[in-house]
Each structure stands twice: as C-alpha cells, then as structure tokens.
Write a structure and sequence with these properties.
Blueprint: E1 2-4, E2 28-33, E3 36-41, H1 44-65, H2 73-84, H3 88-116, H4 119-144, H5 147-169, H6 179-194, H7 201-227, H8 238-265
Antiparallel strand pairs: 1-2, 2-3
Helix pairs in contact: 1-5, 1-7, 1-8, 2-3, 3-4, 3-5, 4-5, 4-8, 6-7
C-alpha cells in the first residue's frame, strides 16, 4: 500500500467567498484490487458513517415531521406545493429546514473553517454541534413535545445537518441522496461494473466511494424506518447521538494515544500535548 499525503498551507487556504467551490486536498491511499490500482481517500470510513447519519436523519424527520432534515429537492417541492394549497402544517416545517440549513448551518461551517484555519479541527467542532443539537432535540421532544418545541427542533437540527453536510462537500462527495448524486451513482456503477477498465485509479476509487455512500445512506434510512414503530419519536435520535459521540471520542483517543506513544519512545524530547477540544 502506497500512502500519499497532501497538506494545504495556510497561505493556500481559500477565502470565505471561495469556500463554496474549492475542494480541499485530502489524504489518500492506493490499493490494489480487482487487477487495478484504486485510489481511495483515507476519510472514506468517516464519510460512510456521516452518510448513514444523513440517511437516518432524513427518514426520521420525514416519518415524524413530514419533511427531510437535509437540503433535499423534495423539501423545496413540499414547500411550494404546501404554499400553493395554503397548507400551513407543511409550509412552516419545510421552510424552517430550508432556511436553517442554507442560511445558518452552511455559514456556520464556513465560519468554523475560517476561525480554526483547519479542515480537521472544523470537523471536530462540526461533530460537537451535531451531538449537542441532537441531544437538545431529544430533550425537547421527550420532555415538552408541544408545537413550539416541534419547530425549534427543526431549526436546531437543520442547522446541525447543514453544518455537517457542507463540511463533507469539501471532499467533492455529497453524502446525501441528492438528484445529482443519483445520476453520478449510475455513471460510476457503469464504470465499475461494466467498464472497470475506464478511467484512472482515482476514477475507480470515486466509483467505489459513491456506491458505498449510496448504500450507507439507504441503510441509515432503512434502520430509521425499522425502529420507528418500536421507539418514541424523541428517542429516535439516540443512534445519531451515540455514533457522533463515538466519532468525537475516537478522534481524541487516537490523538492522545499517539502522543503518549511518542513520549514513551523518547522521554528526552519535550513534546507538547495535543490540543483537546
């Protein structure tokens, strides 16, 4: 296995205006499989878990509130159809998700990336936002559960998912089941299944990545649908809380473990402890 690691210098860091378009370089590795060299990004496992969370969240909010938590095309359609029929029960939820996702969640992640000057640190803060938001939504839904908390939960969770999805978009992959992703899935499945010899190693890796993200999203949605009949509405978000907490603690554990290993191997060298959020 050959590892390649491209790091972005601070001077090359994109401005806030360019963040919506620029794709940040990510660490990748080359593997040999199916008689081909395949280039995969090393954060593929993170993207798969995040895709699972997005699929789970979409199914959860659709089953309990009638809207999608991510910025799906369906949300915009639901909003305009509800507006045309004056259905206030759907206008407010879909509008809240669209506004909180686009105008609060995405700008929040841009701000986090600009403040931390680090894509990796922004990831940790983003997960912290998702964990906090999901916890608040569980408390609001289970303890209070009135109309006011219903809308507040949509805003809070829409902000968190918008924050998370914008971070993942910098890899060049969308973890949600957008219409564009579905077209890419067909193209990449053709390249992988019917024309595997087409394209270079990165193209092969992209095809595998897109297919895995699609499957993880579907698994998340199926899982949410499966447990919806046996668990109360508020508790449905507990898997999101657990998975996000594991992602956060795993990152910090690996950082501390690496630090203490380096310190033990060379006690004479002063090694500064890692930054812990």
């Amino acid at each position: 296995i050959n590892d390649t690691h491209d790091k972005m210098n601070k001077s090359d860091f994109p401005s806030a205006i360019g963040l919506g378009i620029a794709k940040l370089d990510t660490e990748s590795k080359n593997i040999y499989g199916f008689s081909k060299d395949v280039t995969l990004i090393k954060i593929l496992w993170k993207l798969c878990i995040i895709s699972f969370i997005c699929g789970y969240s979409d199914a959860h909010t659709f089953l309990t509130r009638g809207v999608f938590s991510t910025m799906m095309t369906g949300n915009v359609i639901i909003l305009f159809v509800a507006a045309a029929s004056n259905d206030l029960s759907l206008i407010a939820p879909s509008a809240l998700v669209v506004v909180s996702y686009m105008f609060i969640g995405v700008p929040l992640n841009i701000l986090l990336i600009q403040i931390t000057k680090s894509w990796e640190k922004a990831y940790e803060y983003t997960l912290a936002v998702v964990l906090t938001s999901a916890t608040i939504c569980v408390i609001l839904d289970t303890i209070l559960g009135n109309n006011l908390t219903y809308y507040i939960s949509l805003i809070i969770y829409g902000v968190a998912i918008g924050n998370l999805c914008f971070w993942t978009s910098k890899t060049g992959f969308l973890v949600m089941l957008h219409t564009g992703n579905m077209m890419k899935i067909v193209e990449f499945m053709y390249k992988y299944c019917l024309g595997y010899n087409l394209g270079d190693s990165k193209a092969q890796g992209d095809s595998i990545t897109i297919i895995l993200l699609f499957l993880c999203f579907i698994l998340g949605a199926v899982f949410a649908s499966f447990i919806n009949n046996s668990i109360t509405r508020g508790i449905l978000l507990l898997p999101v809380i657990i998975i996000t907490a594991i992602l956060l603690t795993y990152e910090q554990f690996c950082r501390l473990y690496g630090y203490w290993n380096r310190k033990r191997s060379n006690d004479t060298v002063n090694i500064a402890p890692p930054d812990i959020i």
